[in-house]
Amino acid sequence: MKQLFYLQATDYEQAHALGVCVEEPAWSRVERCVDRTFEFGGKVFLYAAIRRNDDKLALGSLLGMESHPREYRLIYNPGSNTQIGGKTQRREWWEPGDAPFRGTTLFDDHPWDNRTVCRDKTVALQMFRDFFEHGDLTEVSLRQTRSVWDRKPR
Q1: Is the pLDDT of residue 84 over 80?
Q2: Per-domain boundaries in the chain
Q3: What is the pTM of this model?
Q4: pLDDT tens digits for 85-132?
Q5: Contact 20, 63 (CB under 8 A)
């Protein structure tokens, strides 16, 4: 078995194209996909994966970015080998602090709390870099997320 990363990405500038699917991407490729997705909208998914002995790919932890031009949401799904358990596993980025509710933004026909929508590309790049360098999110990045079952009050 071999541990590796698997990258899936597409941006809305080239929506007619199939996008990018890369096994063992270089950081520069991941960074370029995040940049283009931020600029044009689209999706980036980076998986920590294992190439099994039977040559099948088993996907593990995931850091995902769903984006409109210049705004996005970050979603984290840890693999099965995590300390986070039960319903608290699936997490999403939340802006720091206790800002009051200020409306929603639609992503894939679902209204998301604006406090989960980021407009600073460096946040995404830092979290993807953390995931890429460590094979998962470290505590520094996890502190920027909350369980999808533990949202801030409206």
Answers
A1: no
A2: 2-147
A3: 0.90
A4: 555 578 999 999 888 999 999 988 899 999 999 999 999 999 999 999
A5: no
